[in-house]
Structures are given as structure tokens and as C-alpha cells.
Specification:
about 250 residues, disordered C terminus, globular, single chain, four-stranded mixed beta sheet, about 15% strand
């Protein structure tokens, strides 16, 4: 998201549409390339448009994949820390992605508004949860899952393997790109048959590999060996410019 364009949109919305309250949905890792919005630059641009950060805007962070390891990166000083109720107001994470968890995802909110909900007399409270049935085993399962691995080590291995994949692609004269930090490697789209076999996500003339914890060097080597027989000279190559967060269209 471009901060300058965001400021222009906000100014038009205020001046010509009478809009005073805003919801800013930023992305911590786009689906295809892993691009990350700069929440500080976006917040500053909205301030320049005359929008009060606390009174007039709710900032939601869509962190489907990267939200699982963002705190690890922040603790190591590699990214800015994002705190609920401070830099952001709500956060969504897909639990089935980085953690390979047992439910699809969760939305966390800082300073939740006093919105109406479903009154539950039996429990003497107002239910404002977004989910439906809540299995009592979910909490202990997640507690066990979070303690099951050394997630910092898992992330380190994923990043190392992602760089390994890029190096091996380069040796084959195949250009690839990756946001740093990140574990998604983008490269020219192979044949449809190859993409189907490895269940590669594709966008236009590109494909990506999301180097998750279960992806080992042996798996990458097998992938590369089969890619060798699939390389077509006519296939285009992604440009490094494509990987700039503001310029990404997906």
C-alpha cells in the first residue's frame, strides 16, 4: 500500500464524501509474495490527511502467515514490534499456516469496542466471539502445539532453506525473488503439469514456493531435479522490481 496514495484517498473521502471514521487494513505478508505494509508510514500519511490515529481510525493487521513468526523477528530486532492497542488495533492470523494448527484462524483485538453481542444468561456474560461452537479441547491443544517445537529454530531453518532454493534456481539461470525477512520464493511459472504435481500457487506468469517447516533440503532437491526436466527456454523471468511491496499487485 502506498502511503501517499492512502493520504490522497483519505483527503478525498473527508472532503467530498463526508467520511470521518476509517478502518485501515494493512497486510503483514501478502499471499503470493509475502510483501509487508509499513504501518508506521501508513499511520503518518493518515495523520497528514487530518485523521486522528486514536479517535478516527481502526488499524487491522492481516497477518495470515507472517503473524505466526512476527514476534520472533521483532524480538531479534529484524522488524518493528506491532502491539495490540498501540500500533495496531486488531490482528488476524491463520492458525493452519505457520503453526499447522487445529483451527483455521483467530482475530485478536486491543481495546475492543463495547459492541452488542449475544447475552448468555447461563454464563452471565455477553458473547462477542466471532466463532461459533467452541471446543473445550482447542485451548490445551494450542498450548501443546506452541510448546511442541522451537519456533525460532524452525523459522531459521525455513529461511535457510528458502535461500538454498534461490541459490539453486540461480545456478540454473532461473531468476527468483524473496522479501526479507520472508519464506516465500517467487520464480517463473513452470508447466501446468509441474504446478499440479507440486501444488504450486501461481499468479499470471509466476509461481511461488512457501518454504514451510516440513520442507527439507531433500524435498527441495527432488523438486529441483524434476524442475530441470520441465524448464522451457521461452519462460519469462520475474524482475526484482516486482518484489517491491508498493508495486506488488498481488
Amino acid at each position: 500500500m502506498c502511503p501517499k496514495e492512502l493520504a490522497n484517498v483519505c483527503k478525498v473521502a473527508k472532503a467530498y464524501m463526508g467520511i470521518e471514521k476509517f478502518v485501515l487494513t494493512m497486510t503483514i505478508g501478502t499471499t503470493f509474495t509475502g510483501a509487508v505494509d509499513d504501518v508506521f508510514a501508513l499511520t503518518e500519511s493518515m495523520g497528514e490527511a487530518g485523521i486522528n490515529r486514536r479517535a478516527d481510525v481502526h488499524i487491522h493487521a492481516d497477518a495470515a502467515l507472517n503473524g505466526g513468526f512476527w514476534n520472533i523477528l521483532a524480538a531479534n530486532g529484524r522488524v518493528e514490534r506491532l502491539r495490540l492497542g498501540h500500533e495496531i488495533d486488531s490482528l488476524s492470523i491463520s492458525g493452519h499456516k505457520w503453526y499447522g494448527g487445529f483451527i483455521g484462524g483467530v482475530v485478536l483485538m486491543g481495546n475492543p469496542p463495547a459492541v452488542s453481542g449475544i447475552q448468555v444468561p447461563y454464563l452471565s456474560f455477553t458473547d462477542r466471539m466471532a466463532s461459533g461452537s467452541k471446543d473445550g479441547l482447542v485451548a490445551p491443544k494450542w498450548h501443546a502445539r506452541l510448546r511442541q517445537f522451537n519456533w525460532e529454530e524452525e523459522l531459521r531453518r525455513c529461511e535457510t532453506n528458502a535461500q538454498y532454493l534461490m541459490t539453486k534456481l540461480s545456478e540454473r539461470n532461473i531468476q527468483s525473488a524473496k522479501h526479507n525477512p520472508g519464506i516465500i520464493v517467487v520464480f517463473p511459472k513452470p508447466s501446468d503439469e509441474f504446478c499440479d504435481r507440486f501444488q504450486l500457487a501461481t499468479q499470471d506468469q509466476f509461481a511461488h514456493v512457501c518454504v514451510m517447516p516440513h520442507i527439507t533440503v531433500d524435498i527441495l532437491d527432488m523438486f529441483l531435479d524434476e524442475l530441470d526436466s520441465d524448464i522451457c527456454p521461452e519462460v519469462g523471468k520475474p524482475s526484482i522490481e516486482m518484489m517491491q511491496p508498493i508495486q506488488c499487485s498481488f
